[in-house]
Amino acid sequence: MTNLTDITTKDIQVDSPITDRFGRVFNYLRIAVNEYCNLRCIYCMPEEGVPFQTRDRLLGRNEIFKIIKIMADLGVSKIRFTGGEPLIRKDLIDLIHFTSKKTNIDSIHLTTNGVLLPEYINRLVEIGLNGINISLDTLNKSKFKKITRREGLDKVLEGLHLAINSGIQSIKVNVVAMKDFNDDEISDFVELTKDNNITVRFIELMPFDSHQIWKTGKFFRSDQIVKYLKSHYEGLQSVTGSSTEHFIFDIKDYIGRVAVIPSYTRSLCGDCNRIRITADGKLLNCLYSQKETNIRDAIRTGMSDVEIKDLILFAMQKKLKDGWVAQNQGEDSRESMTQIGG
Ligand code: SAM
Ligand code: SF4
After folding, report:
1. Residue 83: nearest ligand to its CA?
2. Looking at the domain assignment, is residue 203 inside a domain?
3. pLDDT digits (tens, 9 = 90+) for 145-167
4. Is residue 87 part of a domain?
5. Domain assignment present for 207
6. Is residue 37 within 6 Å of ligand 2 at its C-beta?
7. CA 162 – CA 219 distance, rounded (Å)
8. 3-state secondary structure at position 31
9. Ligand 1 centroid to 175 CA: how many Å?
10. Using a 6 Å cutoff on CB, does residue 39 contact ligand 2?
11. Among 16, 48, 163, 216, which residue's beta carbon has the most beta carbons within 10 A?
């Protein structure tokens, strides 16, 4: 049996790409590498956490290597490590190192709450991380504690600062925009882009929380956020961003950029290129999908790589037209974004 760590990029051949019935091509893998987190964001999990699964149910290091290798064979060229909080996972460095050195995936990203970033940023960049998304919903210490139920704003800001000086190619700050919580901080966040080559992205709140903050009137629609930005920044110029950045702007004399992500209103499904794997190894062909394909068990029951590839191709062929149709296909709503990775 081939040892995955012995594979070099010259051994790699790309099989047929991953597509669906609507002509979409999937080349971007988002993999949650754990469920656990050192924060308790109120829109994401209750104070006591969610019923975290035991470690044996989550993907192990070699299983993640295998999935990444198979996805790369199927033409995946971009990966994002997410969670839970991915920086809590001790072998995250090995996972990123493997992806960078042993596959032809050439765009490697991490989504983190940033609390542990000061410890890891330099090593991450050294081993080949290309981009980092830091989730930060407020620049105010007491509000940070209110939203995350923990301390840590100083560490996140230190991590952001170190990332800016690290030479990493892409830095994005993800702000979940909420009425009566941080809508008064929109301009403060925009100002971070004045002298820094970063993108600040305002994201719609989504209904993935057992705490149901969703029902408290905090939802701030993307078109309203865009309206706010347009009325406050005269030199706002639309530019092209990634496929999920529906509204992305340059501001005259600002080095960075600002984007608005309609993650709830879902105007972007037609351009979706994402495959999601949960921390326990289930493939989701849509963030809102109620159906899963168990890749972990496929590996554990000894399926061959060819059979696993067929399973992935089949699961993605079944992808529904958009997130609204997907959400309406079942009763359950997931308890927390930690199980999906955002
Ligand atoms: N812990 C890491 C972090 O916070 O960046 C990675 C995992 S977290 C689940 C990924 C992203 O999902 C974060 O940017 C977070 O703000 C977002 N998220 C979690 N629950 C959400 C919700 N109900 N609505 C919108 N975004 C949410
Ligand atoms: Fe943790 Fe990220 Fe969820 Fe916040 S959003 S509780 S940081 S997983």
Report:
1. 1
2. no
3. 999 999 999 999 999 999 999 99
4. yes
5. no
6. yes
7. 32
8. strand
9. 9
10. yes
11. 163
CB 242 near ligand 2, within 6 Å: no
**Cα separation, 338 vs 342, whole angstroms:** 7
- Ligand 1, atom 7, lies closest to the CA of 83
Nearest residue (CA) to ligand 2, atom 3: 44
In whole angstroms, what is the distance from residue 61 CA to residue 96 CA? 11
- Total domains present in the chain: 1
pLDDT confidence of residue 267: 67
Q: Give the domain CATH number at 290.
A: 3.20.20.70
Six token digits for residue 190: 């925009």
Of 223, 137, 222, 214, which Cα lies nearest the Cα of 174?
137
Taking the C-alpha atoms of residue 324 and residue 133, their distance in angstroms, rounded to an integer, is 26
Residue type, 227: K
User: Does an H or E element contain 135, and which?
Assistant: strand 131-135
Domain of 43, in residue numbers: 4-163+171-179+272-340
Residue 292 lies in a domain: yes
How far is residue 196's CA from residue 272's CA, in Å, rounded to a whole number? Answer: 29
Tens digits of residue pLDDT in 30-83: 999 999 999 999 888 888 888 889 999 999 999 999 999 999 999 999 999 999
User: What percentage of the chain carries pLDDT values higher than 70?
Assistant: 87
Ligand 1 atom 26, closest CA:
205
Task: Give the up-direction half-sphere exposure of residue 203: CA atoms within 13 A in the CB hemisphere.
Answer: 20
Distance (Å, whole) CA 116 – CA 100: 21
Q: Is the CB of 45 under 6 A from ligand 2?
A: yes
Ligand 1 pocket member 105 (CB < 6 A):
no
